[in-house]
Amino acid sequence: MNKINRKKRRYFRAILLLFMCSIVLYTLFSNISKDKYVVSEGDYAPNFSLETLQGERVELKDYRGEGVFLNFWGTWCKPCEREMPYMEEEYKNFKDQGVEILAVNIEESDLIVQNFVDRFNLSFPILMDRDGEVTGKYKIGPIPTTFLIDKNGKVVKIITGSMTQQDVKKYMNLIKP
Amino acid sequence: MNKIKCECGHVNHEGTVLCEACGKPIEGNQHIDGNDKTRLLNMRYDGSARRSQTYKKSIIDKIWNFFSSVKVGVWLIVLTLVASAMGTIFPQEQWIPANAVSRDPAIYYESTYGIFGQIYYQLGFYDLYSSWWYLLLVALIGISLVICSIDRFVPLYKALKNQKAKRHETFLSRQRLYSESDNVSKEEKQQIIKSLKKQRYSVRDENGHILAEKGRFSRWGPYVNHIGLIIVLIAAVLRMTTPMYIDEYMWIREGERTVIPGTNGEYYAKNKDFILETYDKDNQRFEEAIKKEGVVAKNFETELVIYKDQTSATGAEPKLEKLKEGSTRLNHPMKFDGYALYQAGYQSNEFSSMSFKVHETDDPNETAIGSITIDLTSPKSEYKLDNGLRVVIDQYFPDYYLDNGEPRSKSKYPKNPAFVFFIYPPNSDDPEVSFVGIRKNIDATGENEYKLGLQDFEMRDVSGIMVIRDYTLPLFFLGGVIFMIGVIQGMYWHHRRIWINPKNGKLLLAAHTNKNWHGVKTDIEKAIANTNVNMVKDQQELPG
C-alpha cells in the first residue's frame, strides 16, 4: 500500500513536471520559429493564380511536374535588377529541361514593368500581383526573395537577396525534374 | 515510507510536523518548522507534511523541491522584473524611430547611444521580451507557481479536513492565544457555544471537546489566485504562439484595394477615402492649442470596403464578394468576422495624378495647345492630343532620385514622380525628348519646339491601419477575474479557530487565526463574557 502510494506520487510529479516542461519547450520553439516565413522549406507551395503582363492567367498548380523558380521582385529594387539578366541567361538553358521561372512583380503599374522587361529582354512570364495577394500569402519581407519549388510542388529552398549567375544555375539544377 | 501513528490513534504521513487530528507535535520532525527552538508552534500549513520538506532523494524530488521553494519563486520574479526594466533603457527594436540613422539595430544602438548602446545590442536586449531566456524566466515562474501551490494546498487541505476537536494539550498550550480556567460549569460552556454560534462560528462538539471554526474558505484564496495567474500565463502562451492573436499593420492607398495581412489572403480591403478633419480656427475650446500648433486634428477616418475571397483555400483566381462597407475612426475600429481594423496612421505625400499642358517653347504666354492627365498608378504609354501631337512616356520614375547620375526610383510609390517624355509633333516620327518632374523641366537638346508644363496635380492619402484579432482576451479576462476572486477570498475572510478542551478538571482555551489577532480576541471576549473562563493571553507578547 505504501509502496503503491509512493509510486503514484512519483509518477504524478514526474508527469506534471514533464508536462510543464513540454509546454515551455513548445512555447520557446514556436517563438523562435515565429518570424520565419509562413511557407517554409519542405512545405508545399501554396497555390495561387495571377495574370501575366500579357494578360494571361497562370496558376501555380499547372506547373506540377516542372521545377518552378518563383521570384518576387520590383523594378525599384537594385538587387532584383542585378539578378534579372542571370535569370534570363539560365532560363534559356533550363527551359527545355523543365524549369520555369515565374517572376512575381509586387504591385507596380504595367508601364513600368513593361519598360523594365523591354530593357532587359526578359522572356520568362512576369506575374502581376496587383493586390499584393500572393506577396501576402508567401509573407514576403525583403526582396528579391526566391522560392525553389520541385516537380512535386514542394519548396526545396528559400533564397533572400541577390544571386550570382552561378547561384541561379546551381538552384535551377536543384529543381530540375 | 513510514507512516507515523500518533498517540491519539491518527495515522499521519511521513514528514508531518503536527498530528493532523490532535495537533500533537510529532517527535523528531519539529526541526522542519523550527518548532524545536521556539515556545509557540509554527502553524504554517497546520504542520502538515509537505512533499518538498520530506523527500529529497531522487532527481524528481530535487526538481520538485527547487520549484516548491517560495524563495526560488521570489528570485525568479525579481530576476524577471530586473530583466523587464532593462528592456526599457533603450527603445526595443520594433520601436526604433523611422527617422533614425539606421533602422538596423546593429547600427542604430551604437550610433545613437554610444558604447552602452553597443553593449545593449550585443547582449541582445534590443529584442528582450521575445528572447528565449526572458520567455524561460516567465515559464519558470509559471512552473514555480503550479508546484508551490500543489505542494502546499494538498497537505493543508488534508490537515484541515482531518482535524479533530480534541486536541493534544501541548498543541493548545503552545498556541499564541491560550488560557486555562477552573470551575467552569456545563451551563457556562453551553452559553459559550451559543455565543460562538451567534458569531457565525461552526461549532463541533466531540465529547465535550469543542472546535469553533469560521472562514476556512479564506485559506483557499491564494490557490484560487494562483489558478487565475496560471490562466493568464496560458493565455500569454497562446497569444505568443498561435494565430489566436494577430497583430498586423497595413498601408492602404486611397482608391486601392489590397489583401489584409494576417488573414491568409481571405480578406481584402479597399480604401474609398481617408478623412482628416481639423478644428475650426475660431474654436474657443482649443484656442490655446490652435495658437501653439496651428492646426488641431479632430478626426482621422478611413472609409473602407471589406471583401471576402471565396476561393482563398484553393489559391485559384480570387472571387471577391463584398462583405461590409463602413469606416474606421480613431479609437472606433471597424469590425468584421473577429477582426478589428484600427485607424493608426496616415501619409499624405503621394501623388495620384498629374496634368501637363503642352505649349510652344517660344510662346511667352505659354498658351496650351492641349493637355494630358496621367494616372500615376496606371499610366498609359501614349497620350494623343487633338492636333495630332503625341506624348509618349518613355520612362516613369514614381519616386525619382539620381543614383550616380542615373535616374532611378527609390520605391514603387509616387512620392516624387518624374518622366522622360517623347513628344512627337504632328505628322512626325522624330520625337523631342524632355525630362519633367517636380520643379524640373529639362530639355535634352535645347532645341525642343514643344514644352510640357505642370498644370495641376492630385494627391492621395495613405491610411495606416492596424489589423487585430485577439481570441485570447476572454482568457486573460477570465484569469483576471479568478485572480481577483482569490484575492478577495483571502483578504476579506479570516480563518479563525477556537479550541475549548477539558483536561484534568481544567478547561483549556486556545485560538489561532491567520490574520487579525485582535479580531479573534474580541470574538473570544464576547463568547466568554459572564463566565468563569479566563481570557486568553497573547503569549507572543510575553517575554521569553
Key traits:
heterodimer; A: 177 residues; alpha/beta; Glutaredoxin; 2 domains; 7-stranded mixed beta sheet; 7 strands; 42% helix; elongated; B: 544 residues; alpha+beta; TATA-Binding Protein; 4 domains; 6-stranded antiparallel beta sheet; 5-stranded antiparallel beta sheet; 30% helix; 32% strand; Cyt_c_bgen_Ccs1/CcsB/ResB (chain B); ResB-like_domain (chain B); transmembrane (chain B); Cytochrome C biogenesis protein (chain B)
Which fold name is given in CATH as the topology of the largest domain in chain A? Answer: Glutaredoxin
Strand proportion of chain A = 15-25%
Number of strands of chain B: 24
- Unreliable stretches covering 5 or more consecutive residues of chain B: none
Number of strands of chain A: 7
Overall description:
The complex is a heterodimer of chains A (177) and B (544). Chain A is built from five helices and seven strands; from the N terminus they run αβββαβαβαββα. By secondary structure, chain A is an alpha/beta fold. Chain A folds into two domains: 35 residues; 127 residues, 3-Layer(aba) Sandwich (Glutaredoxin), CATH 3.40.30. In chain A, strands 2-1-5-4-3-6-7 form a seven-stranded mixed β-sheet. Chain A is elongated, with a radius of gyration of 23 Å. The mean pLDDT of chain A is 85. Chain B is an alpha+beta fold and 544 residues long. Chain B folds into four domains: 157 residues, no CATH class; 92 residues, Kinase associated domain 1, KA1 (TATA-Binding Protein); 121 residues, no CATH class; 106 residues, no CATH class. In chain B, a hairpin with a 2-residue loop joins strand 11 and strand 12. Chain B starts with a strand and ends in a 6-residue tail after the last strand. The chains are: A alpha/beta (177), B alpha+beta (544). Chains A and B meet through helix 1, helix 3 and helix 4 of A and helix 3, helix 6, helix 9, strand 7 and strand 15 of B.
